[in-house]
């Protein structure tokens, strides 16, 4: 029994992850455009088709109509091989999925956390639906207070009571089928919609976080540039101040040289008086 995650990147990249529920093992496969074309020639030498067409067919086989195809699995210590026989536009089409075993610690990232997201999404949807039903009951009560009556009596409903609804759900036994085969709840259209909604929200959150980090980096760079400019400005100011002082000193020295007689370069500037050494 397997749980499948499939990703098609712009229809030129194929990524597949399988969780073996019975053996509690995770397997992974990724193929780029060149690898898909190579495998197409290897397994279907007489067939020519663009990569986009191949990926669309694989998605149809694995997600939309898996029961119409023939599958053979071969499990090894670190690999899982799945051979698929199907028809592409009426022509026999063979394909192999060669998956590599992953570490179980990745189950948390790829399956446990997404399932928790799905549970949160289901809970949010239930709360929103309850609000809508309660609002509709208030709307109906307002119509009744105005003397408006239903023309078709069989459409009349009782006022929604959450506690009564919970008791009704507990007494229903539809969950028995899911206990026998848990993967059934993952294949329903509702679950696919909920899962897609979770993925979209997660991607939007990631994009928002990335944008925030980028903006913070830009602000940090701007602040660094301001500090650098201020430092350069201060350095320039200090340098110009030193230059100005130097010019002033040179000017003073020049004036002093003009007012004083020129000295012989060989003449000593200072005379040392020889004192007698006491006996």
Relevant terms:
279 residues, 18% strand, six-stranded antiparallel sheet, 6 helices, alpha+beta
Give a written overview of the molecule.
The protein is an alpha+beta fold and 279 residues long. 54% of the residues lie in helices and 18% in strands. Helix 3 packs across helix 6. The longest helix has 71 residues, at 189-259. The termini are far apart.
How would the blueprint of this fold be written?
Layout: E1 2-8, E2 14-20, E3 25-31, H1 33-43, H2 51-64, E4 70-75, E5 79-88, E6 91-102, H3 107-145, H4 162-171, H5 175-180, H6 189-259
Antiparallel strand pairs: 1-2, 2-3, 3-6, 4-5, 5-6
Task: Characterize the main sheet.
Answer: 6 strands, antiparallel
Helix content: 40-55%
**What pattern of helices and strands is seen along the backbone?**
EEEHHEEEHHHH
SS elements, strand count: 6
Decide which structural class fits the backbone. Answer: alpha+beta
- Averaged pLDDT: 77
* Alpha plus pi helix count: 6
Report the sheet-strand fraction: 15-25%
Distance between the termini: 120 Å
Ranges where pLDDT stays below 50 over 5 or more residues in a row are 262-275
Q: What is the strand arrangement across the widest sheet?
A: 1-2-3-6-5-4
Shape: flat
Rounded to the nearest angstrom, the radius of gyration is 41 Å
Compact description:
This protein has helices at 33-43, 51-64, 107-145, 162-171, 175-180, 189-259, and strands at residues 2-8, 14-20, 25-31, 70-75, 79-88, 91-102. The protein has 279 residues and is α+β, with helices and mostly antiparallel strands.
């Amino acid at each position: 029994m397997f749980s499948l995650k499939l990703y098609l990147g712009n229809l030129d990249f194929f990524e597949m992850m399988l969780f073996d529920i019975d053996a509690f093992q995770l397997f992974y496969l990724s193929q780029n455009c060149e690898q898909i074309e190579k495998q197409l020639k290897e397994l279907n030498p007489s067939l020519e088709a663009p990569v986009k067409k191949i990926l669309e067919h694989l998605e149809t086989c694995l997600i939309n109509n898996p029961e119409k195809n023939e599958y053979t699995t071969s499990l090894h210590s670190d690999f899982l091989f799945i051979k698929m026989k199907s028809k592409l536009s009426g022509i026999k089409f063979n394909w192999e999925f060669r998956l590599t075993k992953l570490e179980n610690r990745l189950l948390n990232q790829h399956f446990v956390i997404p399932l928790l997201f799905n549970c949160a999404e289901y809970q949010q949807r239930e709360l929103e639906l309850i609000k809508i039903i309660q609002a509709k009951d208030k709307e109906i009560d307002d119509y009744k207070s105005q003397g408006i009556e239903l023309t078709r009596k069989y459409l009349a409903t009782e006022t929604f009571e959450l506690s009564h609804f919970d008791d009704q759900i507990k007494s229903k036994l539809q969950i028995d089928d899911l206990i026998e085969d848990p993967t059934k709840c993952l294949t329903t259209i509702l679950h696919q919609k909920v899962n897609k909604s979770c993925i979209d929200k997660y991607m939007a959150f990631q994009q928002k976080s990335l944008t925030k980090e980028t903006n913070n980096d830009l602000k940090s760079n701007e602040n660094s540039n301001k500090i650098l400019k201020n430092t350069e400005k201060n350095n320039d100011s200090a340098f110009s101040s030193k230059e100005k002082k130097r010019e002033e000193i040179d000017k003073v020295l020049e004036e002093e040289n003009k007012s004083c007689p020129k000295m012989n370069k060989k003449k000593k500037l200072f005379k040392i008086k020889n004192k007698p050494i006491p006996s």
